[in-house]
Design goal:
The complex is a heterodimer. Helices cover 28% and strands 42% of the residues of chain A. By secondary structure, chain A is of the alpha+beta class. Chain B has a six-stranded mixed sheet. The chains are: A alpha+beta, B alpha+beta.
Chain lengths: 144, 143
């Protein structure tokens, strides 16, 4: 049994230990982030979720600062229709840091009318600042 | 007395608290490369956290036991690792995020690979020093 390693498929909230509660919080934040980035594009919520020194990485290698990421998420005119995937969210937590990995599969309808499938593997690095979990780093990878 | 101590501190020329850590971190990064290329299991164990999730640009994610297994079976071999544009994006008391461009060559299941990728490394400070705790690469077009 590896210390600090827990896999949670979808949000299995057991509420038993403090760590389970933290993991549930991290999962909820991760889901919320996905819904904002690929849906509501709510910049106020992003301001709350993003750490000051966030580096936000795209699948093409482009890395944005916190401000650039928020601006570009809000500016993004694409509409995403999410498709179900078999794999869920996985979390590894260690003290005040957590790494979440999850797939993202959707139809992307771009501003110019083109529609294409978007399949990403997303990595989220969360840190606990006082009592809140904030996103410190994000990296997306395109899955062929 | 306070003024004296303050001047003494200024003249002492000591590095800021963050610096020794960033040097130790850079050393750990170099040790990681060496461990991967030289297939040095002991060194790899020193610089890889047991909870590591090592993500490849295909989406394949390996745990510590996966990495160790592939080492021993020779499934994944790194021949060269060249990094450029390395920057320590964040550095706190026990967590660091580092980004870089990496040109890696080697063999996977006997098939040679030659990849340019963007790499995110997340390092965690433990009692034994900095250890790679998470890693993710994304494929780039060759320049």
């Amino acid at each position: 049994m590896r210390t600090g390693y827990i896999i949670v498929l979808l949000a299995l909230y057991c509420g038993a230990s403090a760590q389970s509660k933290e993991i549930a919080t991290i999962l909820a934040a991760s889901r919320e982030l996905e819904n904002i980035v690929f849906g509501t594009k709510d910049s106020i919520k992003l301001e709350k979720l993003f750490a000051g020194y966030l580096t936000y990485g795209h699948s093409n290698g482009k890395v944005e600062t916190r401000e650039e990421a928020i601006r570009n998420i809000v500016r993004n005119k694409s509409v995403y229709v999410k498709k179900d995937t078999l794999a869920g969210y996985s979390v590894i937590m260690n003290r005040n840091a957590a790494v979440v990995r999850h797939p993202f599969l959707a139809l992307e309808k771009k501003e110019d009318g083109t529609v294409s499938e978007l399949h990403l593997a997303i990595v989220l690095v969360w840190v606990r600042e006082k009592k809140d979990w904030k996103l410190l780093a994000r990296q997306a990878v395109k899955i062929q | 007395m306070k003024k004296f101590l303050f001047i003494l501190f200024l003249l002492s020329g000591t590095a800021t608290p963050a610096q020794p850590d960033s040097v130790k971190l850079k050393t750990a990064m170099q040790q990681l490369d060496r461990a991967l290329i030289e297939q040095d299991e002991k060194l790899l164990q020193r610089v890889m956290h047991p909870d590591i999730s090592f993500g490849h640009s295909t989406g394949w994610v390996q745990s510590w036991s996966d990495v160790l297994n592939d080492f021993r079976t020779g499934k994944l071999i790194y021949e060269t690792l060249e990094h450029s544009a390395v920057w320590i994006a964040t550095l706190s008391k026990n967590l660091a995020t580092v980004r870089m461009h990496t040109h890696a060559t080697g063999k996977l299941n006997g098939n040679p690979f030659d990849l340019h990728m963007h790499v995110l490394q997340v390092w965690m400070k433990t009692k034994e020093g900095w250890k790679l705790w998470a890693r993710q690469s994304a494929k780039l077009q060759a320049p």
